[in-house]
Amino acid sequence: MNTVMLVIVTIGTMECAVHMPFKTMSDRLLGVLPRAIRAIRNNAVSDHWKEKALLKLAKLSLVSSICAAGAIFGLAAVFVGGVYLLSLLFPSLWDFAMSLEGMAIASGAAMLYLGARLYAGSRLQRH
Q: Which residues are within 8 A (CB) of 61 and not within 5 positions of it... i.e. 6 or more apart?
């Protein structure tokens, strides 16, 4: 029963993860480096303006990193909160979910669910 409850919480968490804008966050974070390199290599701009541009790009990189970390911690909070709420009904669930075996089952279930979701999505687009 613990395994079933853990898989339910895992699927709920993965469904939340699918709907989060991770692609946008990663694009914004990875887009900073090419812009910084272009600013450094631009000989037509003074060092003063390069410093200002790099400071702005560093701030953008920091904000993007904090947003990505917040999203990941938010997903962890959804998972832990779901396990906690279900452990009020099934007291042994908490110990099982926080064990190495429970984390392995949750990780496997997450990968299987995401793989099945991707496969089903691609099959639906073909027809």
A: 29, 32
Return the sign of the alpha-carbon dihedral for residues 88, 83, 24, 125.
Answer: negative
Q: What's the rounded Cα separation, in Å, for the pair 64 and 24?
A: 10
Contact 6, 109 (CB under 8 A): yes
* Spatial CB neighbours of 74, under 8 Å, sequence gap ≥ 6: none
Flag whether 126 is in a domain.
Answer: no
User: What is the Cα–Cα distance from 14 to 109, expressed in whole angstroms?
Assistant: 10
127 within some domain? no
User: How many other C-beta atoms are found inside a 10 Å radius of the C-beta of residue 96?
Assistant: 19
What is the domain range of residue 43?
2-120
Q: Average pLDDT for residues 49-59, to the nearest whole number?
A: 90
Structure tokens at 120: 């089903």
Whether the predicted pLDDT of 127 surpasses 80: no
DSSP reduced 3-state for 99: coil
Rounded distance, CA 86 to CA 95, Å?
Answer: 12
